[in-house]
Amino acid sequence: MRISFATAVAGWTMIAAILASAQQSGAGSQNATRDQAPQNQTSQTSQSTSSGQSNTASQTANQSANQTNAEASFKCKNPADPRRRRGECNDQEFTLDETLARGWNELRREMQRIGITPTASYTGALQTNATGGHDQVWSYAGLLSLGFSADFEELLRAKGLSAYVGFSWGTGSYLSGSLNATIPTSGLYAPTYYLGEMYLQQKLLKQKLIILAGRIAASYGFASLPVYANYVTYGINPDPFSLGANDVTFYGPPPGIEWGAQISYLATPKLQLNGGVFNTNINSANGANHGTDFTLQEGNKGMLVIGEIDYLHNQSSSAKGKPGQITAGVLHSNNSFPHLNNPLLRSNGYTGAYVMGQQMIFRPEGIGSSRGATIWAGWTYNSHNIICPIPSFWSVGASYQGLIPPRKNDILSVAVLRADGSKFAAPENTEGMLEVNYEWIHSRYLAITPHMQYLWGLQNQKGPNAVVAGIQLGITL
Q1: Between residues 76 and 430, which one has the greater pLDDT?
Q2: CA dihedral 353, 202, 215, 41 (to 10 degrees)
Q3: How far apart are the first and last CA of the chain?
Q4: Is the pTM of this model over 0.85?
């Protein structure tokens, strides 16, 4: 598919207009905001030395709550953005200077006073294959995401109970389809509108135990690292795409979603236990009826079950060391899947596993700073390769925030991904990708990410390799 000239012009006109309006909104206040974000919000409670004694008392009173919420803050760096929103974001407060649409801030404040928090964001990516493919293609994909959370502690005096519902509207074209690429160059292509996650959340035991139930996405609660959000490719953002390529019911919206329940328990400040059960309706997972296919059984059977352990290293508010995370999980589905080499034959289920971790290794400004270098790696495996097109997938990478001293919040990232296809599937499932990007953080609500991707192992092309160049725009509205 090719993007029209008018669509491309419209997209870049929008970018120019947003940059112009943002520059006029007050350079002084924006620079102060930029210098503060996105460091740990728990360290920002003291705003001036003149109120030192009262702030110290407030910090002492809130120390226990901050300790409990440190893990959630690490996993939810932008609670104002509803795109691929994790459950940890629901009760994370955000200031309205993290959003662009200040014209409706008063309405948002009034809604927050009664326990309702609306969020919105727009993400768009313009990409082209500089080399590789049958023809050069310009592709633009955009995704508008909306979310509403309701705090029933405010509305109904139900302590710890909240609800969330999300929506999306996508437009554009799909460059990976034109390249016949296995690893998606972007995760924004989801044309038309969809109902997203819709669930109730209950927090218990001083917020250490979190229970979600309703229409929820396995991919938004499991098998992910915070550093994955720094990348454009859908290969690792929000999680290794092989898990969904092998079983579409793992994917999150858009387009599809499943009925399910999820539980998370912070056993110690360093150890979190997670578990989930999800329905296996393929039609619902593929976004039937714009995400409103609520049927449990449509030829499917059984359930997808996931168990995960997270080791949270130096993530408490008082930790002096550099933060990190190690995640390991097992997933099993007893649904029926067609054989890759003969769709008329079916096998009952699969078992898979994943291991991933990230660790900050350099922090030039010391304790409390988010500037510095982080390395990470991940691996997924599936035991039944006659029904799973990508039984093995691995990825490694690094991110550096603030490499250029005047740009303290910009992030330079590099990643290498490798998908090893099943011997029973088409050969193009085996593929590799290198991504290098630079996320330019204009403000807490606007980021622009130029990027380059190199794909090798492509099949049925003029050449086996392709170079993709592009730029991504992210706006929190």
Answers
A1: 430
A2: -70
A3: 29
A4: no
